[in-house]
Fold DUF4440 domain-containing protein.
Amino acid sequence: MPDESDEIVSAIIARWSAGFSRLDANALSALYSKSAFFFGSNPTLYRGRDGVKAYFDGLPRWLAPRVQFSDVSAERVNADLVNMAGIASFFLDGDALSLAVKITWVIAREDGDWKIVCHHVSSQTPLI
């Protein structure tokens, strides 16, 4: 039986995946804290919901983007904080894998809802 941290993460992943499939910057940025830090697929640090929205608004308009999360681990830090790590595989033009990255989120309870406060992706290729 999944614990509450798994349920929190699964719910956010479902909403994140749905928003990404529509490239809906408003829906995606709503999943983030007003104080979010966001490192996506470029070297810029985006801050807050407006920064997250700007990141997603700046992506190319692929015809049928989708994302698949795998190897997801969730760990409750305290009553108001959850860590998540996994692999995000992006399919941008059809069924061919376009990009797979390591992804981590820190998720916190904010104004009674769970929000991503820190988002970071990195290459799966070893750097050292």
In short: The chain has three helices and six strands. The helical segments are 4-21, 25-29, 48-57. The domain at 4-123 is CATH 3.10.450.50 (Nuclear Transport Factor 2; Chain: A,). The mean pLDDT is 94.
